[in-house]
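> run fold Amino acid ABC transporter substrate-binding protein
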Amino acid sequence: MLKRSLMAAGAMMCALLGTAAPAFAGATLDAVRQRGQLVCGIHTGVAGFAQPDSRGAWQGLDVDMCRAVAVAIFNDPTKVRFVPLSSSTRFTALGAGEVDVLFRTSTQTMLRDTTLGLRHITTYFYDGHGFMVRADSGVRQARDLRDATICLTQGTTNEQVTADYFRSINVPFRPVLYERLDQIIPALQAGRCDAFGTDASQLAATRSVMPNPRDWNILDERFSKEPYGAYIRRGDDDWYDLVRWTTTALIEAEELGVTRANAEELRRSSTNANVRRLLGVTPELGESLKIDRNWAYNIVRALGNYGEMYERHMGESTPVNLPRGPNRLWTQGGLLYALPMR
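> ok
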């Protein structure tokens, strides 16, 4: 009797697991449409990627990526609710269905892709781990940080990268872990940390909001590959396609020279087949994603192409002032490359 009961309970558990795993499968786009709003996970606050402005409105590259998905679905960049998530809670929140997509300076790694029940999507930003120190510290390379106290953000790849590097050169250091970037900045200013280790873009962002940015140096060395991509839950191919090709469309627009200012004119006059497809003159791209044929045109008109978004949030005219480096187009010596949209 006990054996039969256990077998029945096991069968019921398998059935429950079998139905629970694909609960979101194929349904995210429909759920977003029915809700009338995209829910997007972002950083709790880092200049250039996601940070509220003086009016409390979120701004940044990741924020605009979220808005681009909202435009693709609704033709309205305001139909998105932003959910700030810490490094340690971001993937749990996504897996639990608290957000529809995660655009949050999240490195794409094999174990994240294969063990969390999530999928990462097209790379939209290339970065690498580095260190920032006081300009008067005398530190010129990471090797000089022997016995140093290093601030790190909990739940990031930077924890492992830092530990692996110093172990490889047999240099001891003392890690100090914080959950959020806004906790690290006062720790640096108070001298509780000799250095801050994270991706170079976030080092530049952190330096830009310090009272005296010139007091801080970002070391030239890079110790890892940190390709950022959006994350979604596994099992929803339609949603994967929509987020993937929305990201790609922004890069494709820059490759083709389609900008916020000229998109309307190019849609009327261009004879380039790739431009015509991108801007919805011919409908096949939108039809394949089950959305409006003008989806990519609407995105560029609302937000600009990838290059325009980058310059708006990280370019030379911004406090972050981060050179594009590997985030230039492949035709300009960078790594950004739009897959063929045909």
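The chain has a mean pLDDT of 92.
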